[in-house]
């Protein structure tokens, strides 16, 4: 079975449009993950950064992320005209990490030319107790429907296994919800201990229990690629997880594997095949 491996940096950087700010202050992150991204604070800075990175490092795209408002939204509206310019003048693939979305928000992303939405899919209890964001299953469903019907062409749902205090709670229900949307990919993440947060000592789910979630996803959405994304524990836990997933043929994509040395694709694992082919063709033409 062919496993595709990905290494986003340096060709596909992550950019926070809110710097280190986030209104939610989620228990597993508290904005600290944002410090691993490149920070910008204005649309002008975003365009200048993308232009400079393309000229100096030949980036092929970027993930635009950041902190969320108290309503669970990435405050991206002021950046949308700039994203349209980035698409038009720099010809970059643009992925946006969103939380809650409605029809207008989804339409705005599509109008700006955003290619991919990376959607963190969490259940209402986790959103309320861990993310400090009051929610309901109706909100989760409406976000999915809005993005699917009115948003960018590609929606890449991400499921964080163990987000509720390291327990597996509603992951199966979230996967079942995705079935009717026929996603081209499901990106699996595993709870990661972030130093200095309330979750610093929270253990991720047992490896075998996490693998059962992958097995369920393969069974329920057999046509979707299953990816093991960036956010996951490394070391002994990560190696055991990788080896067991690979032995069971439960992975189609993986970000920077620990257990084998692959030839990397230089971008984010959530890109659909159409955009992967476009980038690789472009890179071959530029560097024959």
TrEMBL record:
Coiled-coil annotation reads none
- Entry keyword Metal-binding: yes
Looking up InterPro entries in the UniProt record yields:
Aldolase_TIM (IPR013785), Elp3/MiaA/NifB-like_rSAM (IPR006638), rSAM (IPR007197), rSAM_sf (IPR058240)
Q: Which GO terms describe its molecular function?
A: catalytic activity; iron-sulfur cluster binding; metal ion binding
Alphabetical keyword list: Iron, Iron-sulfur, Metal-binding, S-adenosyl-L-methionine
Task: Specify whether Iron is a keyword of the entry.
Answer: yes
Q: Where is the Radical SAM core domain?
A: 5-231
Q: Which domain of life is it from?
A: Archaea
Protein name, UniProt field: Radical SAM protein
Q: What organism is this sequence from?
A: Thermoproteota archaeon
């Amino acid at each position: 079975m062919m496993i595709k491996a990905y290494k986003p940096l340096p060709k596909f950087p992550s950019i926070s449009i809110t710097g280190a700010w986030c209104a939610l202050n989620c228990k597993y992150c508290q904005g600290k993950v944002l410090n691993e991204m490149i920070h910008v604070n204005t649309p002008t800075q975003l365009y200048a950064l993308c232009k400079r990175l393309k000229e100096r490092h030949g980036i092929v795209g970027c993930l635009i992320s950041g902190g969320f408002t108290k309503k669970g939204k990435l405050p991206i509206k002021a950046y949308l005209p700039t994203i349209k310019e980035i698409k038009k003048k720099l010809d970059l693939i643009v992925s946006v990490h969103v939380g809650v979305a409605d029809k207008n928000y989804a339409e705005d992303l599509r109008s700006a030319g955003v290619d991919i939405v990376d959607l963190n899919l969490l259940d209402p209890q986790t959103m309320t107790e861990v993310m400090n964001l009051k929610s309901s299953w109706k909100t989760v469903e409406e976000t999915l429907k809005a993005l699917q019907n009115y948003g960018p062409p590609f929606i890449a749902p991400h499921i964080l296994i163990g987000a509720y205090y390291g327990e597996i709670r509603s992951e199966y229900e979230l996967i079942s919800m995705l079935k009717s949307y026929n996603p081209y990919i499901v990106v699996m993440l595993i709870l990661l201990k972030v130093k200095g947060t309330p979750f610093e000592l929270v253990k991720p789910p047992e490896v075998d229990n996490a693998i059962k979630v992958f097995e369920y996803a393969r069974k329920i959405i057999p046509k979707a690629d299953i990816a093991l994304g960036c956010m996951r524990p490394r070391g002994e836990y990560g190696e055991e997880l990788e080896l067991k997933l690979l032995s069971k043929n439960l992975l189609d994509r993986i970000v920077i594997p620990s257990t084998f040395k692959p030839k990397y694709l230089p971008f984010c694992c959530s890109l659909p095949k159409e955009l992967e082919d476009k980038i690789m063709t472009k890179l071959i033409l530029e560097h024959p």
